[in-house]
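REQUEST FORM: STRUCTURE PREDICTION
Request ID: SP-0412
Submitted by: Lab K.M.
Chain count: 1
Length (residues): 276
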Amino acid sequence: MLSKQFFKIFFAISLLIALLLSPFFIGAAKAEPAKKTLNFGIMALAPYGFQGDGEKWRGNFYEVAKAIVKEGGFEGTVRVLPVPRISHEAIKGRTIDCTITAQVPFMEKNYKRIAHLGESLTFGVLTLPGLELKSYDDLKEVSVVVPIGAKMGSPFDQDKSLNKVPAKDYVTAMLMLERGRVDAAVGVIDSLKFSANSAGIKRTHYSPPLVFKTLPLNVYCAPFSHGVTYALEIQKAVERLAEKDTISKIFKYYRGELTRVSQSVTVGDRRLREQL
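STATUS: Completed
RESULT:
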């Protein structure tokens, strides 16, 4: 007969094996620090987010978002998408946490403002050389090309007294201006100038802008998203990037104001890395 001592040992070993195989113990053994996930959606419009050399994504908003993810120690993606899809996925699909855009009423109402980037967007009009617009009322005497999707706000968007000519995109709008088919082009000034440069249009082919308004650029995150959960971490990451002048240099680069930059400025754009 087997001794009582054998059964005691067998029972102890069985209990130990059961404990080791229990979900609680396995979970504890494999436990790792929680990963901070943060996904950005960036509007598909140059110079904010667009495909450059080799079809790789570029853009100032894109580069800044990548820098925030890296600086904050986050894991996640930065995708370039049409604006309606960003809103749908951020509010409905939960696949996008944050975006970068101007401080407009829609964003203030539907998203959480997390951090200010220290940069801004200027909305206005570029005109033919020698044509100076001193006020909004001067627009009533000229033809104005408007890229499809461009929103200037009130009163321009609702003003039916203006001679507005649609264009499929910003590059087309600036080509129409250069060729004299219209007198002026309306939109975000950085986008108009960047598109003109992309199309080979020299700055001498248009006059200084008539400015409608200038709005701050912010990081906005969807309610109940990871962005709101990590709001403090995002704010600190933006502060550190601002202290290192990273954000400013990215914006200056895409405005054509920089030819040499620090390698720490970006994580995405090849030409930024090469110009050392």
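NOTES: The first helix runs from residue 4 to 20.
Reviewed by: T.R.
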